[in-house]
Amino acid sequence: MKKYFFIGLGGFLGAILRFLVKTAPINNLGNMIPVNTLFINVTGSFLLALITTAALEGFKISTDLKLGICTGFLGAYTTFSTLCKESSELIYKSHSLYSLTYILYSAFLGLTAAYLGVIIARTAVSKLYNRTVENLGEN
Could you give the CA distance from residue 47 to residue 130 in angstroms, rounded to a whole number? Predict the structure, then answer.
């Protein structure tokens, strides 16, 4: 039952943060590419990779807390459905090139951020436990 509380609390906080970032006055490249949503999804990808890698490879994080952060907070914070809606709106407004650019930026930057999250988490775990990064996957 406690895990549902953590997921709910994380979801509540993640949704509020997403709303705050989504409504922040950021230059959206001439209102063509939704930079706010791009920022949300890239930072969410980074944090999810960082936290799950750290938890799997050495840091002791309770299951309830991990569910609250990864499923609740980051699940509510990131928003694939908004990316799809905004891309569709760009196509509908005859801005197909901007839509494709937005989708490609989202995929490339999201994967890059996730990769960096894994690398940073592995480096932190290796320094904390005096292990080499190459040996972390052998636990």
Answer: 23
Per the CB < 8 A criterion, the answer to whether 66 and 3 are in contact is no
Convert the pLDDT of each residue in 32-69 to its tens digit: 788 888 999 999 999 999 998 988 887 788 888 888 98
Distance CA 9, CA 7 (A): 6
Judge whether 108 and 38 are in contact, CB under 8 Å.
no
Question: What is the C-alpha separation between 84 and 91, in angstroms, rounded?
Answer: 11
Residue 26 DSSP code: -
The pTM for the full model equals: 0.82
**CA max distance for the chain:** 55
CA 91, chain centre distance (Å): 25
Question: Taking each helix axis from N to C terminus, what angle separates 80-92 and 35-56, rounded to the nearest 10 degrees?
Answer: 150
Which residues, including other chains, have CB under 8 Å from residue 49's CB and lie 6 or more apart? Answer: 113, 114, 115, 116, 117, 118, 121
In 3D, which of 61, 48, 54, 70 has the Cα closest to residue 133? 54
Tell me the pLDDT tens digit for each residue of 66-108.
Answer: 889 889 999 999 988 888 999 999 999 999 999 999 999 999 9
